[in-house]
Amino acid sequence: MRLVFMGTPAFVVPVLDALVNAPDVQVAGVYAPPDRPGGRGRRAEISPIKSYALEKGLALFQPSSLRTAESQEELAAIGPEVIVVAAYGKLLPVQVLELPRHGCLNLHPSLLPLHRGPSPVSTAILEGDTVSGTTLMLLDRGMDTGPIIAQQQYHLSGSETAETLTADLFQLGTSLLLEKLNDWVGGRLTAKPQEEAEATTTRKLERADGQANWTLPAAVLERKRRAFTPWPGLFTHWQEKVLKLLDVVALPAEAAETAKPSWQPGQVLPLGISDVPVGIATTRGILGLKTVQMEGRRAVAAAEFLMGYPQFLDARL
């Protein structure tokens, strides 16, 4: 089959690679976003999907929009029978949705209709979900509202970060896509409408989401650290600088060396634990610090941080 792939980040490169190496699949075109300035020098940075396409000599397209007649004519000239979308970052206009004979398929890292929208993986971790998964769906005009072709569950251990879970879910999605693609194109599968009554929608993350709120329970803050890795991370402010909390653990109140009645949320507490020597008081439990990074400094274990900043033990964040 003649196929066009649309995607952007590193965690969907395995999806494209699997399609390139799949029998009976011809990847006739790869769509990636335009290069954007990044880094300190603001030099143009290319996406991982573009990098892969260049390495493999695939036909690459980077339109700034798919809503123009020119970009739609260019896509039509490729003649795709099906378009596969994975974390492309753009809603496809109806003219594109109707172009391939077998539609536009999307891999979404949640069990739709749960967690539609831009941050399904982070939201699953934040909400303490025990089961997630990947959905292969047929795109329509809405955001992740199209009918479902197939799904695969993934059981969470409770240690995943958004970074690791996203990679795992798209790896799962790769297998699901390869398993179902020929049957879909061959007309042997039927897509089922989503249950709108069960739908939930996520929102785009902002940097401010990573600011630690010490009135929240320690267990919630620990989930935030995992949900916001790699971005925006979990952080606080101390001495007018950002202190990143790179590795943390939720602990019971009994872990502190100081009696609980004297605590205030945000108070730094010494702990009698070798790899977690310090923690922060919350309204429920203690957020133990394992690895931290002071603004402008390298990441260090909490014990090393205390050696350089012993006054941290007297802090109120």
Descriptive terms for the model:
single chain; 317 residues; alpha/beta; Rossmann fold; 2 domains; 7-stranded mixed sheet; 25% strand
Short description:
The protein is of the alpha/beta class and 317 residues long. It has 8 helices and 15 strands.
Describe this structure in words.
By secondary structure, this protein is α/β, with parallel strands linked by helices. The protein has two domains: 2-198, Rossmann fold, CATH 3.40.50; 207-314, Methionyl-tRNA Fmet Formyltransferase, Chain A, domain 2. It is 25% helix and 25% strand. The strands form three sheets. The chain has a seven-stranded mixed β-sheet with strand order 5-2-1-6-7-8-9. A hairpin with a 4-residue loop joins β13 (278-281) and β14 (286-294). α1 (13-20) runs parallel beside α6 (162-185) and α5 packs antiparallel against α7 (218-227). The protein is elongated, with a radius of gyration of 23 Å. The termini are far apart. The relative contact order is 0.10. The mean pLDDT is 95.
Portion of residues within helices: 10-25%
N-to-C span: 58 Å
Proportion of strand residues: 25-35%
Summarize the helix and strand pattern as letters.
EHEEEHEHEHEHEEHHEEEEEEH
User: What does the main sheet amount to?
Assistant: 7 strands, mixed
Q: Which sequence of strands runs across the widest sheet? A: 5-2-1-6-7-8-9
General form? elongated
Q: What's the gyration radius in Å? A: 23 Å
List low-confidence stretches: none
The CATH class assignment of the largest domain is Alpha Beta
| Secondary-structure class | alpha/beta
> What is the CATH H-level superfamily of the largest domain?
Formyl transferase, N-terminal domain
Task: Quickly count the helices.
Answer: 8
- Summed up, the domain count is 2
| Average pLDDT taken over every residue | 95
CATH topology of the largest domain: Rossmann fold
Number of strands: 15
* CATH architecture classification of the largest domain: 3-Layer(aba) Sandwich
